[in-house]
Amino acid sequence: xxxxELKDVRFKYEFGNDEVLKGLSLSIEKGEYxxxxxxxxxxxxxxxxxxxxxxxxxxxxxxxxxxxxxxxNVKEAKIGDIAKQVGIVFQNPESQIYGxxxxxxxxxxxxxxxxxxxxxxxxxxxxxxxxDMEGYxxxxxxxxxxxxxxxxxxxxxxxxxxxIIVLDEPTAEIDPQGKSEILRILRKLNQQHNITIVxxxxxxxxxxxxxxxxxxxxxxxxxxxxxxxxxFQNVPRLKELGVKIPPVCELFQLLKDEGRYRGMIPVTLxxxxxxxxxxxxx
Amino acid sequence: MFQFAEYKNSVYRAMNPALRVVIPILMTIIGFMHTxxxxxxxxxxxxxxxxxxxxxxxKTIFRYGKMLLTLIPFISIIWIFFHxxxxxxxxxxxxxxxxxxLNMAGIMALRFTSVILSIPLLLGAxxxxxxxxxxxxxxxxxxxxxxxxxxxxLLPTMESDMAIVKQAQMSRGIxxxxxxxxxxxxxxxxxxxxxxxxxxxxxxxxxxxxxxRGITYKGKKTFYKNIQFKLYDYIMLGVxxxxxxxxxxxxxxx
Lengths: 282, 254
What we know:
Chain A is α/β, with parallel strands linked by helices.
């Protein structure tokens, strides 16, 4: 049994005309680093709400199908119970800050779940260390950079020690340096703390070498699901689906189209360098 | 507009946050209870003293105090020109000013001064965290206190969003100053539509965030920073009860 399992999920928002998810089935294992991509309105954000129970428990609309998280049927659970297992981070950091200090923001969830003071203190220290934000405890989150704000939000989610963190385009409104910081932290959480990462992202170039799996969504369904290496072998189809192609894949596809290259399309610069090195040696 | 204070040490702020939530509310109630000039002036003096003891920043006091500049002339005009009773003091064509009208205008001006000055006493002498602790001490349900805090947090965010939207609209050639009132109203509608959309989006995200952080969780909740009542707080509570009781007594005799 997978940690998260969605079967034939259909969802239409209360005030929407059409279904956003149209019979989506998907399973996610513990410890995976999954990237979900696809063009706008493919249903990526809606899927991310399904992964932590906001759909069907909180967001209004018509839901069909089944979602099981850690072998519990979400329909029979409560948002609070799921929140301790699956944390979620949204796009705009400003809109997600609750507290006027970093400490207040992290403490909020821990108090709600009734942790004692000693545990709260330990969790705050641990979460801030995990996102490399020690020393920021009493700072106002509003005075921090976009990347740092998002790291505070990740720390707030992390303090509950969830098994999975779902991030809905967390770097969309952040500068390149902040973006790199966030992606580095996510990699660290996945590799050092074995936390499952489900990242909704358009910019594939920066994450392709760390992701275990890439899911391409199209019109409310999973269109392609596989390892980055397998997914990026079909560049023309990915372009049709509105996926932002990493330049290295684009270059080798061009070489393939011109008949100058026949091998597998590399997905990272290191792989490309190895191939080019090989070509030169030949 | 509505913003909580930064942390500071002072005689007033040494009091438990619950008392600092209750005192401005009691000042407002006393202000509405009395119609005696002397009592209302004493109340204003007391509020100003507390503002001073609370080290409330002058800019915070002026931010709310400037509301009086529009409120007092408006109230005065209404009471002076539209309230009859007592001796007729002045008559010019259809304009008649009565003694009671003048008296009531004075009372209302003093009343609203005390009430408006109680706002910086509440917001300028409490941090957001202390405000939440204060509400918690007063046994206000956590969900309610979080909603109140969110509203107070939303207002300054709306203010900065409005500045951004205004600049964006102005860069597209939309004027907001030095134009006819009709044009001004039309242009402000162009400002409020994106502002409203932004605010709704922000609130929607924040409500999802706090839900995912367990606000609706039914189990036991704990408080990381729980400020207990100390001897000083009990003494101040006695003073507050004394002042409020005296105010009730004075209402029955004055």
